[in-house]
Structure formats: C-alpha cells, structure tokens
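Thread title: Can someone regenerate the structure for this chain?

I was given the following input by a collaborator and told the matching structure tokens would be attached. They weren't. Posting the sequence so someone can regenerate them.
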Amino acid sequence: MSKYIIVILLFILISLPLIAANNAKDPNPLFLISDNGKYGYINREGKIVIQLKFYDAKNFSEGLAAAENGVSYGYIDKTGKYVTDSLFSNAGDFSEGLAVVKIGDKWGYIDKSGKTTINPQFNNIWTFSEGLACVKLSGEYGYIDKTGKYVIGLKYSSAQKFSQGLAKVVFNEDEYSSDWGYVDKTGKAVWQTTEYYDDYWDE
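Best answer:
Regenerated them for you:
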C-alpha cells in the first residue's frame, strides 16, 4: 500500500471520532438552510426554528452563530436573537470561548458577550485549538495565546491549527520546493521533510 493511501486512511480514522464528538456536544443542534438568498435554521425534524431572514449566516458553534443583517455580522442565539452588536465585516466560529471576527480589513477575537479580547490586527486568523491560534501577518504565520501574546513567533510560510499537541507548518517555501513538517507548542520541529504533497495540505 502506498504512503499516500496510508496517510489518507489515517486521516479518515482520526477524523471520525472527532466528528462524532462534535455532534455529541450539542443535544439539540440547528442546521443552516438557505432559499432565495436568505438564511435560516431548522431542527432535526426539518422544522424551521429561525426564519430565513439573514443575508448570510454560519453554522452554530458553542451555542452562537454569526449572521449578517444585510450590512454587517453579529452573533445570534438559538432563538434568532442577536446577542452581540452587529458591527463586523465578517465573522467565524466560536472555539474555546472566542470567535474570529473582522473589522475593516483586519481580524481579531471576541468573547461571547461581543467584547473584543484581541484587537483586530491580523491579515488572517484561525479559531483557537488547544489554547493556541494560528495567525497571519505580513505574509508570515505564527501562534498566539488567548491574551494575544505570541507563543510561537511569525516565521512560517504557512501553518495550520494544533491537533493532539502538534501543528503542521511550512518552514520554507519557494517556487520549486517546500520544507514542511510538524512543530510542538514551543515551536520545536518534531518532524521535517522537503517532500511535499499537495493533498496533505488543506489550509
């Protein structure tokens, strides 16, 4: 069996319990639907719980969902009521109590009350995972903690979220090759190679 197939099978085996765990966290999930350019939510039985009234919306995460009122995004609860101000140009999921939001052309983080916890300053960001979040600034990637402090400085050509204590990063990249591997939460490389497979990378 080729190395490529083995990696794909391992990825599937690792992903299945994670998907099951995420579904088990919410005993009464709502599901995003859209029709004629408007978004709303249904329950497991297919009943509309939140009317299709939003111009854009995201899936629920940690009890809240980002929804656009036609001008900007805010976060709604499962009754469809906004629980934060609607002042974000884009917004993403909550993870570990914080959500990614965009104000103007910069990304930062808020808590569930809508309070800014890490000021918008990044070109791109990812949700927190295992206490750290991947951020991008000036073309480089690094990792911050929930206070906004860099735990691993901006030094990678690309990077992904932490999972099981490790994160996939590209150390150096040019037109012809990529030097990539995995780092621990101190930024120490635990595995590194110059062999590069596009299918192994899903930023």
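The two ends are 26 Å apart (CA to CA).
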